[in-house]
Amino acid sequence: MSQYDINVENTDRYSLRGKVFHRLREDILAGKYKEHEELREMAISEEMGVSRTPVREALRQLELEGLVTIIPNKGAYVTGITRKDVEDIYAIRALLEGLCAKWATLHISQQQLERLEEVIFLSEFHASKNHAKQLTELDDQFHDILYEACNSKMLEHQLKDFHEYVRRVRKTTFSDNTRSLESVKEHRQIMEAIREKDGDRAEQLATLHMKNAYANMLLNGLSKTYDGNGSDMPK
Amino acid sequence: MSQYDINVENTDRYSLRGKVFHRLREDILAGKYKEHEELREMAISEEMGVSRTPVREALRQLELEGLVTIIPNKGAYVTGITRKDVEDIYAIRALLEGLCAKWATLHISQQQLERLEEVIFLSEFHASKNHAKQLTELDDQFHDILYEACNSKMLEHQLKDFHEYVRRVRKTTFSDNTRSLESVKEHRQIMEAIREKDGDRAEQLATLHMKNAYANMLLNGLSKTYDGNGSDMPK
DNA sequence: ACGGGTATAATTGTATACAATTATTCAATC
DNA sequence: GATTGAATAATTGTATACAATTATACCCGT
After folding, report:
1. Which of A38, A136, B11, B72 could form an SS bridge with A12, CB 3.0 to 4.6 Å?
2. Which of B61, B89, B99 minimises the CB distance to A92?
3. In angstroms, what CA-CA distances link A79 with A86, A129, B164?
4. Angle, CA of B101, B103 and B109, to the nearest 5°
5. Which residues in chain A are contacts of B17 at CB distance < 8 A?
6. What value does the CA radius of gyration of chain B take, rounded to a whole number of Å?
7. What is the pLDDT of residues B24-79, one digit of tens each?
8. Helical H runs in chain B?
């Protein structure tokens, strides 16, 4: 992380509050707590072996991240995420990933470019072998390098937030082999545009890459899990 | 706010935590606390007549909003905002306000359109009289109506966050009469494009509107206050 | 006078106690 | 049997006590 980073990842992983925050977030994103499930302070504090104080602070932070909805004097609930939310996020990301690629063209370092090439090289290997887990990891790395290279802590922060937010619905993305191959191809094209300092092309390609990723998600049955009925609160 | 809203404005204004959160945010945005100033829990809790608990929770929320930087075991500081941060935010907003206008074209209601017209009508009056305070308020209303009309809680939330974030540096925007008149003209053009259901034109105009607003800010001496040296931490 | 180190103070981090609010149970009434 | 309402339980909200960490002051030796 850059020295300018202002929040999430700066949150102390070693304080109890930080541990609870990160573990709760991980559990929510991993699906351990279902949508609209109530998060009781006492239950969590007992499970994690801490008092309620750090748990409460962690819950309030998760609320601002949008993963938890707190109803005063009532409780904390896992925030519902509708199909439309996901759709909107991908539309927003399409624009911002484009901007990121354009800026990265201006500011990327030689070393970052080499890391990109390595990630793509490995991706091509694992895509041919259909290794879903490694591909997910490499996809994250590709985008993280670009976020870093765009030289804007504000944009980097935005994109990382969105990326985290949709992790809940992204699980199956790379189990589809056809999409994996296409996705890696698109990564390579983006990298080449950046290497050739063609910012506008990099922008277009990155935007398209997001739109394709979303279109593929729809095909793979996003609608089965997220019904998009808009209900977001319990009772 | 829509029923789907997930966080900031949902934060209970009537709980002590909510009061402290909103008051601290207001004070920071209004410039009462300077950049990099330390926010001591005890001092704040005494000043507001509450215990440290709600103050701590409020500070942690402000951290996630990016207004406060917390260094573990050390303290909470007002986050520095560099000239580049502001520049980046306006670039991002330029894209997202465009998207918002495009979506608003699809979803705006007759009643919202009428509210837009009224706001613009009033703006034209106050711009001719050079009433800076009223113009600021009407500008906020114009954009809020569009945020609402875009029918996306995710985008609305993003834009409101950014809007709050740059409040610290926006104070002088409407003291410049020339810009006021231009700005209102641009608002009218955006509204007309939306009324005529020309989404692409609305998008272009809204994007341009943001770029102009930023360019004007630079002329009005943003650089005097924010030197952009990138220092963001105390000591 | 200056630097280093220790004692002290100040501040944050966590746990717990208590208050306020909300949920649940169950009996009384219709 | 369903409904209301009071008593009770459960849960969140706030205050306070104590622990851990960091900052400050001061003494001492050179």
Report:
1. B72
2. B99
3. 13, 36, 23
4. 90
5. 60
6. 19
7. 999 998 889 999 999 999 999 999 999 999 999 999 999 988 899 999 999 999 99
8. 16-30, 41-48, 52-65, 83-107, 110-129, 132-149, 153-165, 177-195, 199-219, 222-225
**CA pair distance A116, A103, nearest whole angstrom:** 15
Closest CA to A224 of A32, A66, A77, A86: A86
Contact A95 B91 (CB under 8 A): no
pLDDT for A178-205, tens place per residue?
889 999 999 999 999 999 999 999 999 9
Please state the separation of Cα B147 from the chain's center in Å. Answer: 12
Q: At which residue do the structure tokens 């520095």 appear?
A: B80
Give the best residue of B2, B5, B7 to mutate against chain A (max A CB count within 10 A).
Answer: B7
Work out the minimum CA distance from A80 to partner chain B, whole angstroms: 9
* Interval A42-96: pLDDT, tens: 999 999 999 999 999 999 999 988 899 999 999 999 998 889 999 999 999 999 9
